[in-house]
């Protein structure tokens, strides 16, 4: 990427060139808020701050647009989404530069996020919700049909804003709904840019994207004109979303946090799996809901694996996303940065715990924390029991596989997990005992658009992706009709 990319984005931001998308048009707001570059800790842009009145108009526009959009043939809805995706693809480099600036991730990782969002869009468009015949016998014929809900309210987080906005748009629209989407106030700009592109490809009101603070999310969950909330974010906020949505009995899909465990058995090839485990833990600076947050390692390979992970950490360059060779960027915002440092301070106070590498903030501007690996720690500590959502990995020793599974399951979280072994059948048998929405065997991370994704326990309600995900953007309607006996012909017992 040439220097022209970042400079162009900077000039646009200083001119306050970003707008909400409401009823097919760009629109600013009287108020604005600063967007911080986490690599510097300094504001680089002003983002328009939407009002309640603007939300009302966006919802009203979506309700009007829904009437015609739901009647379009599925193929036409898919064609519009494909054209939208093609337009996004032509601007991948521009979006990636902006994403690095507001989110902090390395530029190449930002580009990969946008491209992955497009792969997920294609996968969603290839998924079908078919009418199901559940009865066709002497009692009559009954079908299950999938009816769009109306207006979807989508709320996305700051860790992978493009990757999570795109599937919410796609799933809502392909099932015949209209959408009002709010990005995180920490990373609003790339999503507003998606809205700008969407204006050219959908009828007015079908896609509405507005930026605002935390109060804006509450307005959405309370709004009587929104039929469903699709929320991705923290458990605490998810509970507030659910409570607020209850007043109008909104449908909700909640994809929430995870304190995901990986269990490494005693027969693994440490050199082969160590890089996979490291990046499943530290990718995106550990800011992935399904990243490894707890690494349970059998005593037989514990010391060797710890040493291998520390060696990898020593080769990884941490820095600003536009610097050459950077693989890990900053924590995205000051609040999360201070939380991770607080967890590290608590960890250092625990008796017997060893900080094998990292453990501190880096002495530079921005929200940088060195990749940190913690050994000889166990349950009952905050680092193990809570979700750090940062570049910190506790490595926990175990002797018995059944005990490791029990300890991994002893959590209020249940998003995902993995088991690693040279014996795939052995790993699979253990993975099937994990109380999680996704259990991986000999790998970790990755949401695939044809597979449903979501969590057990406090890690969420409902599913995104796959046919099951599309069902959560629809209502089931039963169409039932009895078998009507044929009337006998005249002359065969019937009266003329």
UniProtKB/TrEMBL annotation:
Transmembrane segments: none annotated. It comes from the Bacteria. Residues 31-479 form the Aldehyde dehydrogenase domain. InterPro entries: Ald_DH/histidinol_DH, Ald_DH_C, Ald_DH_CS_GLU, Ald_DH_N, Aldehyde_DH_dom, LUC3-like. Keywords: Oxidoreductase. The active site is at residue 255. The keyword Oxidoreductase applies. Belongs to the aldehyde dehydrogenase family. This is Aldehyde dehydrogenase family protein. It comes from Rhodanobacter lycopersici. The lineage of its organism: Bacteria, Pseudomonadati, Pseudomonadota, Gammaproteobacteria, Lysobacterales.
């Amino acid at each position: 990427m040439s220097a022209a990319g970042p400079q162009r984005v900077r000039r646009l931001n200083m001119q306050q060139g970003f707008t909400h998308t409401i009823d097919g048009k760009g629109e600013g707001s009287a108020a604005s808020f600063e967007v911080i570059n986490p690599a510097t800790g300094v504001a680089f842009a002003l983002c328009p701050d939407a009002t309640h009145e603007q939300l009302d108009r966006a919802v009203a526009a979506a309700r009007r647009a829904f009437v015609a959009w739901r009647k379009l043939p599925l193929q036409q809805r898919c064609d519009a989404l494909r054209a939208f995706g093609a337009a996004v693809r032509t601007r991948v480099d521009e979006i990636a530069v902006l994403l690095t600036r507001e989110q902090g991730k390395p530029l190449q990782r930002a580009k990969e996020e946008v491209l992955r969002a497009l792969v997920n869009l294609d996968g969603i468009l290839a998924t079908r919700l078919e009418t199901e015949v559940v009865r066709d016998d002497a009692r009559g014929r009954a079908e299950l049909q999938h009816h769009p809900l109306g207006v979807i309210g989508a709320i996305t987080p700051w860790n992978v804003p493009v990757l999570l906005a795109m599937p919410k748009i796609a799933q809502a629209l392909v099932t015949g709904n209209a959408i009002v989407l709010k990005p995180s106030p920490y990373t609003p700009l790339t999503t507003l840019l998606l809205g700008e592109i969407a204006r050219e490809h959908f009828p007015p009101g079908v896609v509405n994207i507005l930026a605002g603070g935390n109060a804006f999310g509450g307005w959405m969950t309370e709004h009587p004109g929104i039929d469903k909330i699709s929320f991705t974010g923290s458990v605490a906020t998810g509970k507030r979303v659910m409570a607020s949505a209850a007043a109008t009995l909104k449908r909700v899909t909640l994809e929430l946090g995870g304190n995901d465990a990986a269990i490494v058995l005693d027969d693994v090839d440490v050199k082969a799996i160590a890089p996979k485990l490291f990046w499943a833990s530290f990718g995106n600076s550990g800011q992935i809901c399904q990243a490894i947050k707890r690494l349970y390692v059998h005593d037989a390979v514990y010391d060797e694996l710890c040493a291998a992970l520390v060696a990898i950490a020593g080769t990884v360059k941490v820095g600003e996303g536009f610097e050459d060779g950077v693989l890990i960027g900053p924590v995205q915002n000051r609040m999360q940065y201070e939380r991770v440092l607080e967890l590290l301070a608590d960890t250092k106070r625990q008796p017997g715990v060893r900080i094998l590498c990292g453990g501190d903030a880096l002495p530079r501007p921005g929200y940088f924390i060195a990749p940190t690996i913690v050994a000889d720690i166990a349950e009952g500590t905050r680092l193990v029991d809570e979700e750090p959502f940062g570049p910190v990995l506790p490595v926990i020793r175990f002797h018995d596989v059944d005990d490791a599974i029990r300890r991994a399951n002893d959590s209020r979280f249940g998003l995902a997990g993995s088991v690693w072994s040279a014996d795939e059948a052995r790993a699979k048998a253990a993975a099937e005992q994990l109380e999680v929405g996704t259990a991986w065997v000999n790998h970790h991370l990755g949401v695939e658009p044809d597979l449903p994704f979501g969590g057990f326990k406090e890690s969420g309600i409902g599913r995104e992706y796959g046919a099951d995900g599309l069902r959560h953007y629809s209502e089931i309607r039963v169409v039932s009709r009895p078998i009507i006996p044929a009337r006998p012909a005249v002359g065969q017992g019937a009266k003329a």
